[in-house]
Amino acid sequence: MTSFNSIIAAVAVVGLLLGHGANAQEKQWTKITIGTEGSFAPWNYEEGGKLKGLEIDLAEDICRRAKLECSFIVQDFDGLIPALNVGKIDAVMSGMSATAKRAEVIAFSQPYATGGQTFGIQKGGPLEALPFKGELINLNDEASALDKIEKLKAALKGKTIGVQAASINASFLDRYLKGIVDVREYKATTQHDLDLSAGRIDAIVASYNYILDAAKKPGNRDMLTAGPRFIGGVFGNGSSIGLRKSDVKLKAMLDEALIASFADGTYKNISEKYFGYDATPQYKR
């Protein structure tokens, strides 16, 4: 009897789960809540009590196209994926790269930016002469990338590098420069900028577009990019909208809206406004 009751209970649970799954698939999306960090200019930032940035303008455009009412919640970067998976938010737009590790727990839209990651340093410092300045190194070609990273290690040995916690840049340092550099993690990128300008760290690793924008701000006038730009590998396929794996219909709606924005030049105008160049990615219709 106990065994029979257990079977019935198991079937009931499965039925509930299947019913829940069916309801999730049939959901008619009319509004969504988007999580963003709100302190990662030019991607997303607060100014005068309002959210601004490339991702804010892009979200407004794709929400209009998808006929969605969209609102934003500001959340620490390392809490965005947990907030998504517990249902506090429905999407993430926060300069989040679509990496293989993150794809184990969430889904991603079509990428909308692939600017790469690089080193930020202070003008006149010892790291200004880092090799491979401006060169694009694709970590998907790891054999070639490792040869160049070995050449970087001599200049970086013993240096203190600032990085945002739970970021792809933290993963990069752990994988390729562990034991070579001292890593200091920060809750927000603006915090490592302050330590860099004060000379408490030797460099940062961050988004190329982020560093270009940060260098325009008071207190960061001596900030420069140094060394190569990295793409691929631990850095993933570029910044994308993070979504729950179960929300297949919402992903399709947002992908369609993104591609339409790329195709008619709207995204080009948005990226030129915030990045200073056309960052329209390659895409498939």
TrEMBL record:
InterPro entries reported in the protein's UniProt record: Solute-binding_3/MltF_N
Keyword Magnesium: no
Family annotation (SUPFAM superfamilies): Periplasmic binding protein-like II
Gene3D superfamilies: Periplasmic binding protein-like II (3.40.190.10)
Keyword entries, A-Z: Signal
Signal sequence, renumbered to the chain: 1-24
Domain of life where this protein originates: Bacteria
Domain Solute-binding protein family 3/N-terminal: 31-278
The protein's name: Octopine/nopaline transport system substrate-binding protein
Organism name: Bosea lathyri
